Amino acid sequence: MRPFVEDILNVKGDGNCGFRVVAMHMGLNEDSHVLVLHALINELKNHKSDYLPFYTTERRYKEIFDGLHPPTSKNGDAPPEKWLTTPDMGHIIASCYNRPVVLLNLPKMGGECETYFPIRSAPPLNPHSNIMCLCLIPEHFLHVKLKENCPLPPPSKEWMTHKIGVAEQWLFQFLDRQAAFDELMSKEPMPPNKPTNEHNPINLDTPEKPKQEIEVMDEDEEYALSLV
What we know:
Cathepsin B, Chain A
C-alpha cells in the first residue's frame, strides 16, 4: 500500500491515540478526542438495537459502551479497556461520521486490513471524498492520509452479515477499489523481517528495560513507513 499513502501523522501515545486520530481526521485538534468519545457514545446509545447483532451479547455491548467513556485518571491516560478496538468500534466511527473507515494492519501484527462502512445509512453523493484511515502498529494508531482512488481493503465480515437496508449501497460504490486491493495483495511480496541477533546473541549483565506499553517507539514508526 505504500505507493498509495500520501502521508502518515503521529499522535500522542497516551492510550487515547485511536480517538486522537479520528479527531485529527475530522479537522479537530487531536486533544479534542473527548468530543469524539461523546459523539460515539451518543451513536451507540441512540442506535443500540442496530449494534447488538454486531456484539452478540448485552454484556459485550456494555463493555464497548463503558470503554467509550473518557478515562478518569488525573493525567488523562487511558487504560487498555478504554483503547479504541477494531472491529468493535470501527462500525461506530463509520456510522457516526457517515464515511468509510479503513484499518491498515502491519504484516508483523498478524491482523487483517479491512474497511468499516456505516451500518444503516446510504452513501452521500461523493462517498470517495472523506475516507478515514488508521494504521495499527504495536499498541498505537497512526493517522494515514490515502491518495485519491487508492485500493481499499474488503469490508469487515461483521458488516457484511449485519448491515441494514440501504447501507448495502456502500459495497457497490467501492467494488472496483476493493478488487484493486485484492490484486495488489496477491502480487505484493512478503516484507522482510526486521533484523535481529537471534542466531548470534550478545549476553550483557545489564538490567532489563521496562516494557513500554503505550508510547510508540521511533523504530515502529519507521517500520510502518517502510511497510504500509
